[in-house]
Design goal:
3-stranded antiparallel beta sheet, globular, alpha+beta, 4-stranded antiparallel beta sheet
């Protein structure tokens, strides 16, 4: 429930089911309005969820919702979500002959190209999360700056949960009738 505090223009998830298949959904609006439908699809071995507050791009366009599917040769190679801003993203995309609607997309395009220098060269902040479709066993997390907000906890009985604030985590854990085991300082 707390995820909508960080966004409200759109939301989405990418989930790896127990059988390894990827599921995803994105839509305009808040999580609370889609919670029941989304929870069933998001259940799996791992999942990343996102709530977007539009700082660029059309907030009414559900295609601007995260996570983004990044394709190479017609196949999705990664799913990525970002909280933050990357003002240099449009310049980076133009330099690489790409059109993007949202600054976050460029981070994942560069990541798919393994252009880590390109990511380092861009100004910005936030946290990125992504699932690499060639290794679906985990979700990757990366802070783009030391000012970027991320909280990480383990759950009693197994599992890891992360979010932008501890309040979001506590709300989600309570809703799921789980218990925090340990909180990590990032």
């Amino acid at each position: 429930d707390g995820i909508d505090n960080r966004g409200g223009h759109s939301c989405g998830y990418a989930s790896v089911a127990e059988d390894g298949n990827l599921r995803y959904a994105r839509k305009r609006g808040t999580w609370i309005r889609s919670r029941l439908r989304y929870l069933e699809g998001a259940v799996g071995a791992s999942c990343m969820m996102h709530a977007r507050f539009a700082t660029c791009g059309n907030k009414e366009d559900p295609m601007n919702a995260h996570p983004f599917a990044i394709r190479r040769n017609g196949h999705v190679v990664l799913w990525g979500a970002h909280n933050g801003m990357v003002p240099d993203a449009f310049k980076s995309a133009k330099n690489r002959n790409r059109n993007i609607e949202v600054d976050s997309q460029e981070i994942f395009e560069l990541l798919a190209d393994k252009d880590y220098e390109g990511i380092r060269d861009m100004a910005g902040y936030g946290v990125i999360t992504w699932i690499d479709t060639s290794d679906r066993t985990y979700v990757n997390l990366c802070r783009l700056s030391h000012h970027s907000d991320i909280c990480v906890v383990t759950i009693k009985g197994g599992g890891v949960v992360w979010a932008s604030t501890i309040g979001i985590i506590k709300s989600a854990v309570k809703f799921a009738d789980l218990e925090i085991d340990e909180e990590y300082k990032v």
